[in-house]
Specification:
Shape: globular
Strand content: over 45%
Largest sheet: 7 strands, mixed
Structural class: mainly beta
Oligomer: single chain
Number of helices: 0
Helix content: under 10%
Distance between the termini: 41 Å
C-alpha cells in the first residue's frame, strides 16, 4: 500500500515561485511513474508533469519552461517547482503514483492508482 502526503497550500503573486512536495510512504517498486495534476475550480484534473524511476520527465505544453518535476529517491519525496506563476495556475495540485515501466508523454489521471490529498495554490494578479 502506498500513501502520498503533500505539503500545505500557499499563495503567491503573479510572477512568483512555489515548490510543492509529496512524500511517499509504503512500498515503491523499482519501476514507477509519479505525476502532478492541476485542477482548476469546476474543471477536471489535468496532468502537468510526470517523472519515472530513471528521472525522465514529461510536461504539459502549458507549463514547459516554467514547472520542473524532480525527486529525492533516497527520501521518497517528489517535488514540483513552479516558476513565473500566473493566475491561471491557481487551483489544487495533486501528486499521483503508478507502477509503470515508463511514464507516458500523455499524462492521464486514469493511469494512476495512488493520490495525495491535494495542495491549494492561489496566484493573485
Amino acid at each position: 500500500q502506498v500513501q502520498l502526503q503533500q505539503s500545505e497550500g500557499d499563495s503567491v503573486q503573479a510572477g512568483g515561485s512555489l515548490k510543492l512536495t509529496c512524500s511517499v510512504f509504503g512500498s515503491i517498486y523499482s519501476s514507477y511513474c509519479m505525476a502532478w495534476f492541476h485542477q482548476s475550480p469546476g474543471k477536471d484534473r489535468e496532468g502537468v508533469a510526470n517523472i519515472d524511476s530513471d528521472g525522465s520527465t514529461n510536461y504539459a505544453d502549458s507549463v514547459k519552461g516554467r514547472f520542473t518535476a524532480s525527486q529525492d529517491k533516497a527520501n521518497n519525496v517528489l517535488y514540483l517547482e513552479l516558476n513565473n506563476m500566473q493566475p491561471e495556475d491557481t487551483g489544487i495540485y495533486y501528486c499521483a503514483a503508478a507502477y509503470l515501466t515508463y511514464c507516458s508523454g500523455n499524462i492521464v489521471a486514469s493511469d494512476f492508482n495512488y493520490w495525495g490529498q491535494g495542495t491549494q495554490v492561489t496566484v493573485s494578479s
